[in-house]
Amino acid sequence: MSLSSPVRRSLLAVTVALITCSCTTQGPPSTTEPSAEPSPSESVPGTAASEPAADVLPDMAMLPLETFRLAYEGDERVLRFDTDVINNGPGPVDVTGERKNTMTPDLKVKQNILLEDGSTREVDTDAILRYETFDGHEHFHFQDFERYRMRPEGGSEWTGSHKEGWCLIDDGNLGGKPSRYNPDNFDCGAYEEDEALEVRQGLTEGWVDVYDWYLEGQYIELKGLEIPGNFCVEAEVDPEKLLTEVTRDNNIASALVRITDTEVTIVRQGC
Ligand SMILES: [Zn+2]
């Protein structure tokens, strides 16, 4: 999330047609908070033979990369860019990080998967939330949520590969569902000064989590690359496959960019 800026207007211009989605639609999800109450139509009280309700999974997808900028981090020249992660799935991304006490630095993440009957089931994951203080964040980040890397056009060797953690939250609406994780109600565990024992984060169906080009970590170092030249830049959401979702086919977005000493231009989306 970008706490410091409103959602870019340009994001809202991204049409849903740009979004590659191979979702298997399982019907519209409940727009209310998941509750433990089973739907009367889905279960018969007192019968053990009823089928367990099916998962209504999220589907994280990377939108086209945009707003490329050349910049410096210390003495290193870097390439900065926006990444936007949308939830294309029929169900929400919903995670809860927990720890027993503050002696443990990391919160272990459970994914809360919505079921067709409106209830949820918890799934243990290898993900962690960690309190981040850099660049004014002062809240918990879902570690390794995205990976960025690049290679010269036609080359096979990736450079500058690194992962970034973020606070998952609803920044922009591209789907019309009521927000479940609005910044007004979800603060990523901010203002608790690393004292939180439980932090919930998520991304509503049809909503976008925005990572602006100027944010800390939102760049790739250009060290060792021959400039001017054409380069393939790639961003992947959930590269460690920490969360359960409909498909990983749409988790990567890439762009071919032309970098000179003074500017960077997009040659085309996809490379
Ligand atoms: Zn943050």
Automatic annotation (TrEMBL):
Keyword rRNA processing in record: no
Name listed for the protein in its UniProt record: Lipoprotein
Sequence ranges of Low complexity compositional bias: 28-43
Keyword terms: Signal
GO molecular function, one term: oxidoreductase activity, acting on the CH-NH2 group of donors, oxygen as acceptor
Source organism, top-level taxon: Bacteria
Region (Disordered): 24-52
Signal peptide (UniProt feature, chain positions): 1-27
